[in-house]
Amino acid sequence: MSEPDNPAQLSAGPEDRAPERTGDQESAFPRGLVIRLFAYLIAGHLFAGFLYLLFHVGTQQ
Description:
Number of helices: 1
Helix content: 40-55%
Distance between the termini: 92 Å
Number of strands: 0
Radius of gyration: 27 Å
Shape: rod-shaped
């Protein structure tokens, strides 16, 4: 049996194929990433609100 001239003609083995998605896998972000993103957004808004309050109180006479 001879080798094919074009390497693209070789069939991919099971280790070369992309994993198939099943219904059990999450198609979105990992849960930990979502929790961290939510926490950073809340913390960022609280910090921005605190800075706004400092500037607002600082401009009062």
